[in-house]
Design goal:
325 residues; alpha+beta; 2 domains; 5-stranded mixed beta sheet; 5-stranded antiparallel beta sheet; 14 strands; 16% helix
Length: 325
């Protein structure tokens, strides 16, 4: 698997097939700079910022009950400099999801990797709760998000160099090791292509395909803002919810929801094979939209006689599905 070292010129260790570099144009970046940036986020997101900032109260005594599962070869804490987190409303429903990176060179700076369609809304949300805190919040125009997927099939290890300019942040993906590494590159990057020889060029569809196979949802089109709970999208299994950090917006509902013996709705990866006639009947009104609502999925699964059995449904190759208990 891959291993990342903390340096301006870092190395990826690959086995077998070369890593796949996937630019993510649908993602945007926000910069939070200031001595109280971590404290601001600590009261707004589901995860614990003490994993990134040991200056927060209680960080020294924190038992890392939610430490992300390390990929083989990823053993140092410096290899994991990001957390997965969600912003909730007061009713405990998801507003936004993001990857939060710490800057190895600037301890007062955090970088949020979120969907570009909600970047301005996230900035507005943060500014609303900023009050008098000393934090500068801005959407970083032109920042580039990149996923590097490790196509490991076993074999000889090879060290590959990545040249990173100042301001770049990176980490093993905190949700699942199988999602590889995530980079956020600054707009004025000194290197047009920091990934040198030994890497294969991929696309966002390659990343989305892998993410869908793993049952990982992200962005407002897959997680409708204000309409779903974080545990319905497996945020706890993806190391995105802390049940020991204390209060944050939506915490009470999230804690209560976690006590339920089972979830009526939860995202699962799936593969469904149906006849051509059934497919035509399901999508007679046109091609399948990228993401369906829960009601539309429920109707379609009833059509396939799987809803009451608690089965899975795929809608024309869409990237998410829901399971009913």
């Amino acid at each position: 698997m891959t291993r990342l070292a903390a340096s301006a010129s870092t190395r990826l260790e690959s086995t077998g097939s070369p890593p796949l570099v996937c630019p993510l144009p649908s993602r945007s970046a926000l910069s939070l700079r200031g001595s109280e940036a971590s404290a601001l986020l600590q009261g707004l997101v589901t995860n614990d910022l003490r994993h990134l900032d040991d200056r927060l109260p209680g960080a020294q005594d924190l038992a890392l009950q939610q430490e992300p599962v390390a990929a083989p070869g990823v053993k140092q804490a410096s290899d994991r400099r990001a957390i997965y987190a969600l912003f909730l409303n007061t009713a405990g429903r998801v507003l936004f999801d993001a990857l939060v990176f710490s800057d190895r060179e600037d301890p007062d700076r955090l970088v949020l990797d979120c969907h570009k369609d909600v970047a301005e809304k996230v900035a507005k949300h943060l500014k609303m709760y900023k009050l008098r805190r000393k934090v500068d919040i801005e959407v970083v125009q032109g920042a580039k998000a990149v996923a590097v997927l490790n196509n490991s099939d076993g074999g000889n290890k090879e060290k590959l160099r990545v040249r990173l300019s100042q301001g770049a942040v990176f980490s093993v993906d905190p949700r699942l090791p199988a999602l590889g590494h995530r980079f956020v590159l600054p707009p004025a990057s000194g290197e047009d292509n920091p990934f040198g020889p030994g890497f294969s060029q991929g696309s966002e569809s390659d990343y989305d395909s892998l993410r869908h196979q793993l049952g990982v949802s992200e962005g407002p089109h897959e997680m409708p803002p204000g309409k779903c709970f974080p545990l319905e999208y497996n945020a706890d299994y993806l190391h995105g919810v802390s049940f020991h950090k204390g209060c944050y917006i939506g915490q009470e509902l999230t804690a209560r929801y976690s006590k339920f013996p089972f979830l009526h709705i939860a995202i699962q990866n799936f593969k469904l094979i149906v006849s051509e006639s059934t497919t035509r009947a399901l999508f007679a009104r046109g091609s399948c939209p990228s993401h369906w609502t829960a009601r539309q999925i429920a109707i379609s699964t009833q059509t396939l006689s799987t809803r009451r059995a608690g089965g899975w449904a795929s809608l024309g190759g869409c990237g998410g599905g829901r399971r009913w208990g």
